[in-house]
Amino acid sequence: MADAAFVTHRGGCHCRRVRFEVEAPAALLVQECNCSLCRMSGFHHLIVPAARFRLLSGDADLSEYTFNTGVAKHRFCRVCGVKSFYIPRSNPDGVDVNARCLDDGTVESLTIEPFDGQNWESNAASLAQLTLKEGPWARSVRPRAASYKSERAINPAACGSVGSRWSAAARR
Ligand SMILES: [Zn+2]
Questions:
Q1: Domain at 7-171, CATH from 3.40.50.150, 2.170.150.70, 3.40.50.11210, 3.40.50.300
Q2: Helix axis angle, 142-154 relative to 158-171, nearest 10°?
Q3: 12 C-alpha vs ligand 1 centroid, how far in Å?
Q4: What pLDDT score does 133 carry?
Q5: Separation of CA 102 and ligand 1 centre (Å)
Q6: What local confidence, expressed as pLDDT, does residue 122 receive?
Q7: Which residues contact 106 (CB under 8 A, 6 or more apart)?
Q8: Comparing C-alpha atoms, which of 114, 72, 76 is closest to residue 95?
Q9: What is the mean pLDDT of each run of 10 residues along the chain (172 residues)?
Q10: pLDDT at 145 (0 to 100)
Q11: Which of 27, 33, 68, 133 is deepest in the core (most CB within 10 A)?
Q12: Strand partners, 98
């Protein structure tokens, strides 16, 4: 049942065996995480309640990878290797869609906010509300997100410098 404020985005893996629908705003707010896995895969996290996600095809082609606590179920296509969605440790009652894997046409804008997954225990609580009924659309995140965006806008290389700063913090 799509809320009036939501649109139905479609997406999936590269070989198109895995296909899904997800209900979310047209203007997306996503998290970019710097944890050991996400920094490698470049996943843009769109976390939604499970009821807003429907797997259309590809269930038999999904392989699962787990590490650390084993709570997160990292599901990737065994044919093309792309992880287009998974069950996140922060919201095991929801689904985490990779916004990079959404089809063209329904995403009006994408606002990226950094999530410090290297210090997951201190920060994960901020994600729990994403699968509550009100969802992230109820919270005000614009100021943080805007400052992150403007940093990128002023200096295209800032994108890399954000990463380097996080990396530097990680090595400490
Ligand atoms: Zn695939």
A1: 2.170.150.70
A2: 110
A3: 8
A4: 61
A5: 14
A6: 80
A7: 7, 8, 9, 10, 26
A8: 72
A9: 78 98 96 91 94 96 90 92 93 93 96 88 82 53 38 36 38 40
A10: 41
A11: 33
A12: 45
Distance 13 CA to ligand 1 centre (A): 5
Ligand 1 centroid – CA 82 distance (Å): 6
Q: How far, in Å, from the CA of 94 to the mean position of ligand 1?
A: 22
* Closest C-alpha among 63, 71, 66 to residue 90: 71
Confirm if 114 and 162 have CB atoms less than 8 A apart: yes
State the pLDDT at residue 3: 54
| Domain assignments of the chain as residue spans, ordered by start | 7-171
Ligand 1 centroid – CA 45 distance (Å): 19
